Structure formats: structure tokens, C-alpha cells
């Protein structure tokens, strides 16, 4: 911050606006206060404050939160590839 800028984490969470119900569960568990809500009550990630811990994503009842580079599809593909490696 003293350098005049904040370097964001490579992995941060992001919210799917279509899924978010505005329940605020994510806000209650975020240890870094990195979640705010827009005028419609939809969660928004403060990228500069997010540390990419994933806590918000694990608690979201609507599965509206994903981590950059770690979507369910990407994790499933990694698991399948690892299993294929074990089988050969
Ligand atoms: S926990 Fe999920 S549904 Fe609830 S406010 Fe956060 S992103 Fe929206
Ligand atoms: S990933 Fe962690 S730090 Fe980032 S918004 Fe979610 S709970 Fe907060």
C-alpha cells in the first residue's frame, strides 16, 4: 500500500450474479472483509482484499462463487487426469 498500489492475488473468488440470492453467508465467513453488496443486494468481491482462501465458495448455498482457475469443471478434469495416470 505504501508503494501506491495493491497487488491482487493470482487466485481470487468471483460471484455469478445470476445465482447469487444475496443471503450474505459469504460475507459472514470471509476473514478479510473482501465481500460487499451492490444496490441490488448481490455479492461482489473486492479483488484487492481477497486472499483466495475459498471459504466463501465452500459455504455459498447457491454455488454462486468460484475461484479463478479452480472451477468445478477444472477440478474434475484434473482429478480424472490424475486417475488416468494412476491406471496406466
Ligand atoms: S453466499 Fe452465495 S448466494 Fe449468499 S450472498 Fe454470497 S454469493 Fe450470494
Ligand atoms: S476467497 Fe477468502 S478472502 Fe476471498 S472473498 Fe472468499 S472468503 Fe474472502
Question: In words, what does this structure look like?
Answer:
The protein has three helices and four strands; from the N terminus they run βαββαβα. Strands 1-4 form a two-stranded antiparallel ribbon. The chain has a two-stranded antiparallel sheet with strand order 2-3. It has a single domain (13-87), classed as Alpha-Beta Plaits, CATH 3.30.70. It has 88 residues and is α+β, with helices and mostly antiparallel strands. The model has no long low-confidence stretch (mean pLDDT 90). One iron/sulfur cluster binds at residues 13, 30, 32, 34-35, 45, 50-56.
What is the percentage of strand-forming residues?
Answer: 5-15%
Task: Give the termini separation.
Answer: 50 Å
Major beta sheet summary:
2 strands, antiparallel
Please tell me what the overall shape is: globular
Query: How many β-strand runs?
Result: 4
Structural class: alpha+beta
The overall average pLDDT, rounded, is 90
What key attributes describe this structure?
88 residues, alpha+beta, Alpha-Beta Plaits, two-stranded antiparallel ribbon, binds iron/sulfur cluster
Quick structural gist:
The protein is an alpha+beta fold.
Topology (SSEs and partners):
Blueprint: E1 13-15, H1 25-29, E2 35-37, E3 43-45, H2 55-59, E4 65-67, H3 72-87
Bound molecules: iron/sulfur cluster (2 copies).
One iron/sulfur cluster is lined by residues 15, 20-26, 43, 60, 62, 64-65.
